[in-house]
Write a structure and sequence with these properties.
CATH architecture of the largest domain: Roll
CATH topology of the largest domain: Diaminopimelate Epimerase, Chain A, domain 1
Strand order of the largest sheet: 3-2-1-4
Number of strands: 4
Shape: elongated
């Protein structure tokens, strides 16, 4: 995880316990995937650099217009503010997650998280259950976004819109810095919804997928 380490070993153990408890209530198999980020978003860094260069050049022009002073060679003033602003803008976009998210834009963030969730569904083999009752919960930390991907056995009983209140509460928890507690609460809600919608399987229920969350640095 990142240096801030939003999930401790105790947090991961609590998530595993929550998954086990939730799975006792239905035939659903819940897989939790936690990713640091879904993309490097290099374009946002260059966009920050371009905006910084423009801002510095404008500031230099204003200084000259107000004070009538270039402070040295005009050629130096033509190049230095833009280059300095580009470096500052690039660095600021790199170290300030909120700014980087703003430069990326919500539509791109949504798309990257959706694609990563579909990839995680396949990577974790959430489809590999007897009755297709797997549910993937993807938590994207940098993006402050979450996604649920349910297999066909769950989709037949749980409407897509029913996941949204769970996703909204979990997203709010991420943005408020309560990632671990919010993930545990979301898993419990998922278990309750699966139980309420009668996601069951014939015969004895067995644990088909790992309860432990997978954690990815990307």
């Amino acid at each position: 995880m990142s240096s801030g380490r939003p999930f401790t070993d105790a947090d991961l153990a609590a998530i595993s316990t929550a998954v086990d408890d939730a799975e006792q209530r239905s035939a659903g198999e819940i897989v939790t995937a936690i990713v640091e980020r879904c993309d490097a978003y290099a374009g946002a860094l260059w966009k920050g650099g371009a905006l910084g260069a423009m801002a510095a050049a404008i500031a230099a022009s204003i200084l000259h217009g107000v004070a009538g002073w270039w402070g040295g060679s005009i050629w130096l003033w033509l190049a230095l503010p833009a280059w300095a602003g580009a470096g500052a803008g690039y660095l600021l976009a790199r170290i300030a997650p909120a700014l980087q998210r703003a430069l990326v834009g919500p539509e791109v963030l949504d798309l990257r998280v959706e694609r990563r969730a579909m990839a995680a569904f396949v990577e974790s083999e959430v489809f590999a259950t007897r009755n297709r009752t797997g549910v993937l919960l993807l938590v994207a930390l940098f993006e402050h976004r979450v996604e649920i991907v349910a297999d066909t056995g769950v989709e037949a009983r749980v409407a897509h819109t029913e996941w949204q209140p769970i996703l909204d509460r979990l997203t709010g928890g991420l943005r408020q810095g309560r990632a671990a507690q919010s993930v545990v609460a979301a898993i419990r809600e998922i278990g309750g919804l699966l139980e309420a919608r009668g996601v069951t399987a014939p015969g004895a229920d067995i644990d088909e997928l790992p309860d432990e969350p997978s954690v990815h640095r990307e």
